[in-house]
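Section: protein folds

Sequence with per-residue tokens
===
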Amino acid sequence: MKAVALYRDNCKVAQPLATTRKEAAPAAPGAASATTMVEKVIERVVSHEPIRQKLPRRRMSRTFDFRVADCKGFVTVAEYEDGRPGELFIRVSKQGSTLAGIMDAFAISVSYGLQYGVPLRAFVEAFTGMRFEPAGITDDSEIRIATSLMDYLFRRLAVEYLSYDERAELGIFTTGERTQQTLPGVEEVAVETRQGNDIAADPPSVPSVAEFEAALVASQVRSSDSPMCMQCGVHMQRAGSCFACPSCGTTSGCS
């Protein structure tokens, strides 16, 4: 409670509280009484409790083995009749260890979540990318590196049960999808090409050192008998029967 407000009776136009009871107006003949006109609205809160959908006694399942770094194990995924995963069994090496017990308890909790309606994508979003040991290279040809056991297991489940579009939104791709050069659905066209020695080489844009030295010697030979320019002092070059300066353009007398 924030405050206690006191009002004098009839001091406000719209009064929240009145000490006197107003007399009910006389009902018109043939009209319904006040008690029948008032409707009682009862708010009914409906709580939707989750319902567990158990798997049938005889169910299909998939089993695959895995190895992450030095940890080897087996995963069995039981499915509903429509192919959805509904139960998970995880067995890792060194039974009786702390890791094996934690993985058993984790598999039971994920199984209950799947049976109570939690979508597989929610588990994939939550557990992919976790980092802890054991982690490293796997023996799976589609998922080569995993940052933890959880990361590998749910990437494997995503590849098995999620569509390509859903995996693309989560950034989960197989090795073949990552190394594909073209866009998905676009096939590469093989074009026959000739060997490199059959194709003519491009003309060199820069002369070789030998060609540059030969051109320099030829220019020196040509300019050895030429006089010096009277204006700028540069060796003049022969232009017909006369000489012309390449720097200032002075000639030795020819037009």
